[in-house]
Design a protein that fits this description.
By secondary structure, the chain is mainly alpha-helical. It has 19 helices and four strands. Helix 2 packs across helix 10 and helix 5 packs across helix 10. The relative contact order is 0.11.
C-alpha cells in the first residue's frame, strides 16, 4: 500500500493495490491550505467489492457488475481481452489508430519524463499507478508476452515480468479511467510517445470487443444520441421548441428579436452546438446567434436527429459509435447543402469532427469542418462588432481547453479577442499548449458512478 506499486503487482490476489490518504496528496496552494482537508471518503461497499472492480484503488469508474465470480468466468474474461488486443493490432480492425498505438508501444524509452507532465501523478502524491507509463507498460508486456512469437517462447524474458489473469485485466480497465487524455505526457515526451492514445485504445478494447464502458458514455450517451437525436435526450421536436423558447425569452430580456435560422438550405455554415447548451446555458445559443447575425454570416442550424448536437461520446472509448455520429453530422450538412460545418462551444466535439474525422471521412463525405473561434476572430478583426472594453474593466483569465490548444492548435484567436474586449486580461500559468487539464476531459465531466466522483474531485 505504498507509492512503489510495481508493474507485476497488477496481477496479485490482493484486495486493493493502493489506498489513497489525504496526507499523501499534493498540498493545496494558498489560501486553500489554511483549513485542514477532510479525509478521503468513498471506501467501497462490500457488495461493490463482490461485483465491481474495486481491486485497483477502491474507486469504481466502470459502473457495470462484470467482476468474474468463478474460475470459468475469469478464464473467459481473459480470453475476450486477448481477442480484443489482437484486433487492436490488426490493420483490418483498427485502421484508425493501429499505427499510432504500435509506434507508442514499441518506442517508449521508459525515461519517465512524462511523469512530471501528468496532473494526476502529481496530485496523488506521485503514486506509481497513476503515472502515464504504468498502464501503457502493462499493455506492452501483455502484448509482447502473449501475442508475439518470441513472447510465447521466452515469456517474461522478452516482455518483462507480467502475469495475465482476470485481476490484471480488471485493474487495467479501471486504470484506463484514471486519465483525461489531456496528452501533456505526449507533448513532453522527447520522442513523441503518446500514452494518451494507448490509454484510449485500452478503453476501446473493452468497449468495442467486450461491451464494457461506463453507462454515461454508452447506454446514456451514444446509444441515447443515436436513438433520440441527442446525448441529452433532446428530440428534434424538443430542439425546435427550445429554439422558440430561447427566442421568446431573450426578446423579453433584451427587447430585440433574435433570428435563429433552422434548416435553411444553401447557407454557408451549419452551426452545431453541444446539446447541453440548450438545456443548461441557453444564453450561449442566443449569444452565438446575435454575433453571427451581427457579422452578417450566412448560417443555419439543423433539426435533423444529431444534426443539432455536436457531442460525440464515442471519442472516449468507441470508434464505431464515434463514426456513426460523425456520419450523421455530415448527412445533416449535405441535406442542407452548406459549405462547411462550424462547431460551437465543445472541446471534444471539435477534436472529433475535425482532427479524428479526417481519418474516417473520405470522398464526398469529407466536407470542410471548422471551429468557431478563428471565424469569430476574423469578424472581430474586420470591425464587424462595436464592442465596449470599458464594460469589462475587471480581471479576466482563460482556462485553455486541452482539445482546442494542445490537440488542435487553436491558441491565438481566443486571446486576440479577449485582449480587444477585456483590458485586464491576464494569462494563467502555464497556459496555451502547456496548460493543465480542467479535470473534465475524456468524459470525466459526466462520470458520476458510485464513489468515482470522490476520486476525481480529490
Amino acid at each position: 500500500m505504498n507509492n512503489g506499486v510495481k508493474i507485476n503487482d497488477v496481477s496479485k490476489p490482493v484486495e486493493q493495490l493502493l489506498r489513497l490518504r489525504v496526507e499523501d496528496l499534493m498540498p493545496l496552494p494558498p489560501p486553500f491550505d489554511k483549513e485542514p482537508e477532510p479525509p478521503i471518503e468513498g471506501e467501497p461497499k462490500p457488495e461493490w467489492r463482490k461485483n465491481y472492480f474495486t481491486d485497483l484503488d477502491g474507486y469504481v469508474a466502470v459502473d457495470l457488475p462484470i467482476k468474474p465470480q468463478n474460475e470459468e468466468e475469469g478464464r473467459r474474461f481473459v480470453e475476450k481481452f486477448l481477442e480484443g488486443l489482437k484486433k487492436l493490432m490488426s490493420d483490418e480492425d483498427n485502421w484508425t489508430f493501429k499505427e499510432q498505438l504500435l509506434l507508442s508501444l514499441e518506442y517508449c524509452a521508459k525515461c519517465q519524463t512524462c511523469n512530471d507532465a501528468c496532473h494526476f501523478y502529481h496530485a496523488s502524491g506521485k503514486k506509481d499507478i497513476y503515472r502515464p507509463t504504468y498502464k501503457s507498460e502493462i499493455l506492452r508486456r501483455i502484448y509482447k508476452k502473449y501475442l508475439t512469437p518470441a513472447g510465447r517462447i521466452f515469456g517474461n524474458f522478452v516482455s518483462g515480468e507480467i502475469d495475465l489473469n482476470w485481476r490484471t485485466v480488471g485493474r487495467l480497465l479501471e486504470l484506463s479511467y484514471r486519465c483525461t487524455f489531456c496528452r501533456r505526457c505526449a507533448q513532453t515526451c522527447p520522442i513523441g510517445v503518446d500514452n494518451g492514445v494507448i490509454n484510449r485504445e485500452i478503453r476501446k478494447l473493452f468497449a468495442q470487443e467486450m461491451g464494457i464502458a461506463p453507462k454515461a458514455f454508452h447506454e446514456q450517451g451514444t446509444v441515447k444520441q443515436l436513438k433520440t437525436g441527442s446525448s441529452t435526450g433532446l428530440t428534434p421536436d424538443g430542439f425546435k421548441d427550445m429554439i422558440e423558447f430561447i427566442q421568446e425569452d431573450f426578446e423579453e430580456k433584451l427587447g430585440m428579436k433574435i433570428d435563429m435560422p433552422v434548416d435553411e438550405k444553401g447557407a454557408d455554415i451549419l452551426l452545431v452546438h453541444n446539446a447541453g447548451e440548450f438545456l443548461s446555458w441557453p444564453e450561449n445559443i442566443a449569444a452565438f446567434s446575435i454575433l453571427f447575425n451581427e457579422a452578417d454570416l450566412s448560417w443555419t442550424m439543423s433539426s435533423d436527429p444529431i444534426g443539432y448536437d455536436a457531442v460525440n461520446y464515442g471519442a472516449f472509448c468507441d470508434d464505431v459509435q464515434l463514426a456513426r455520429i460523425v456520419i450523421k453530422h455530415i448527412e445533416a450538412a449535405r441535406k442542407l447543402d452548406v459549405n462547411k460545418i462550424v462547431v460551437a462551444e465543445c472541446g471534444h466535439a471539435h477534436k472529433v469532427l475535425t482532427v479524428i474525422a479526417d481519418g474516417i471521412l473520405a470522398d464526398d463525405l469529407n466536407i470542410p469542418r471548422e471551429n468557431w473561434l478563428p471565424i469569430m476572430w476574423e469578424q472581430v478583426r474586420k470591425g464587424k462588432f462595436n464592442f465596449d472594453p470599458d464594460k469589462n474593466d475587471f480581471p479576466v483569465t482563460l482556462q485553455d481547453p486541452c482539445n482546442l490548444v494542445r490537440l488542435s492548435g487553436i491558441v491565438q484567436p481566443q486571446r486576440n479577442i479577449l485582449k480587444m474586449i477585456c483590458p485586464k486580461f491576464r494569462e494563467m500559468e502555464p497556459h496555451g499548449v502547456k496548460n493543465y487539464c480542467c479535470g473534465g476531459g475524456s468524459g470525466f465531466a459526466i462520470m458520476s458512478s458510485m464513489n468515482y466522483p470522490e476520486w476525481r474531485n480529490k
